[in-house]
Design goal:
Blueprint (H helix, E strand, L loop, with lengths): L3 E10 L5 E10 L6 E4 L3 H9 L4 H13 L6 H4 L13 E3 L2 E5 L7 E6 L14 H21 L5 E8 L11 E7 L4 H17 L3 H12 L3 E5 L2 E5 L9 E5 L10 H20 L5 E6 L12 E7 L14 H6 L2 E3 L3 H9 L3
Helix pairs in contact: 4-7
Length: 344
């Protein structure tokens, strides 16, 4: 497996009249061919442009939003599944509660509140046990949806945290979507993985883990069956992947996989908080068909988002990543991987 990159040099005369150069590295993902550009000089611009998290504002929002939070009172006032799907009305896994989304985006759109009794807006306060219970609820929702409608096999689970991360309700929660139509990003990954296996005779994701372990620059560590690494050509800021080689779908995930995903995510999300990027976004990318673990790996991808401020800026929503498909980065994956690796 080749991890290819090229470099370019931008030259200019700075405002003081002095010649200046900036080195830009362009990396190409070996599976998808997506390009990520890295310019460390952009780091200073990002610090000025994005600023830092307003921690007093975050504490204030945490306390003020608690009083009217619909998820804190979801057990008594929340939506209910129809009896044919869930006779109990809502699904409970420890402190986690799953219920229908009041505003659906697909045939089966559910919200999984990670811990009804834990209204927190700091990633480090979510905790691995709550994440594990949320994942268990997501797995059960996908399994029940498939049983209720054999045509509804395509699914996507994810989490938006704080407004810059795409969340409209502050209380930590997953969303789980199940429908009859493929998710295009997942479908492209599945097709590319199958093509790699047909071309090379090897599972791309197992080969990727072997390559990154040997290089040691972006591989972070393992949690049971889950392998963690910083993406070589990240599509988003501080992007980290948790891979479950040999398991292709959420419906096949066992408890060791659940615990491994939760433990690693707790480390990654706490790291985001530590560097001042409290908002984050993550998604579980899962095969709709069980039994594809020999060519595709169930995975979670997480990234940091802009800091929360009274007037925050969604830096990542500029035209490059939205329409051109490629992101520009202010920090190399090797740099944040070196700091993250100590958590394993």
């Amino acid at each position: 497996m080749e991890l290819l990159s090229t470099t370019e040099t931008a030259t200019l005369i700075d405002p003081a009249g002095k010649p200046a150069e900036q080195l830009i590295e362009h990396r190409t993902d070996p599976l998808t061919r997506q390009v990520a550009s890295i310019n460390l000089a952009l780091g200073e611009k990002a610090r000025v442009f994005l600023g830092v998290a307003d921690l007093p504002l975050l504490e204030e929002l945490q306390e003020k939003s608690r009083a009217t939070c619909p998820f804190c009172s979801a057990a008594e006032k929340g939506t209910r599944f129809e009896p044919s799907f869930a006779p109990e009305g809502q699904l409970r896994f420890g402190g986690a509660l799953a219920m229908p989304n009041l505003f659906s985006k697909c045939a089966r759109d559910s919200v999984v509140i990670l811990d009804v009794g834990n209204h927190v807006l700091f990633p480090s306060r979510i905790g691995a046990p709550a994440l594990a219970n949320g994942i268990r609820a997501a797995v059960e929702l996908v399994r029940r949806s498939r049983a209720a409608d054999p045509g509804a096999v395509h699914h996507l689970a994810g989490m938006n945290f704080l407004p810059p991360g795409g969340s409209s309700v502050p209380h930590p929660h997953f969303q789980v979507h199940v429908r009859g139509l493929p998710y295009s990003g997942v479908a492209r990954l599945l097709d590319a993985s199958a093509a790699w296996k047909a071309r090379t005779g090897r599972d791309y994701w197992t080969e990727l883990v072997e390559t990154e372990r040997a290089a040691g620059l972006r591989w972070l560590g393992s949690d049971g069956p889950v392998e963690w690494l910083a993406a070589f050509a990240p599509a988003h800021q501080r992007e980290v992947w948790g891979l479950v080689p040999g398991v292709g779908s959420l419906v096949e995930l066992d408890d060791a996989g659940v615990e491994g995903l939760a433990a690693g995510l707790a480390r990654v999300l706490s790291y985001y908080e530590e560097v001042g990027a409290h908002p984050f976004t993550l998604a579980f990318l899962s095969s709709p068909a069980p039994g594809r673990g020999g060519e595709y790996a169930l995975q979670v991808r997480a990234c940091s988002r802009p800091p929360l401020k009274p007037l925050y800026v969604n830096y990542e929503t500029w035209f490059g990543p939205m329409f051109g498909g490629d992101e520009v980065h202010t920090e190399a994956p090797e740099a944040y991987a070196a700091r993250l690796r100590a958590r394993w």
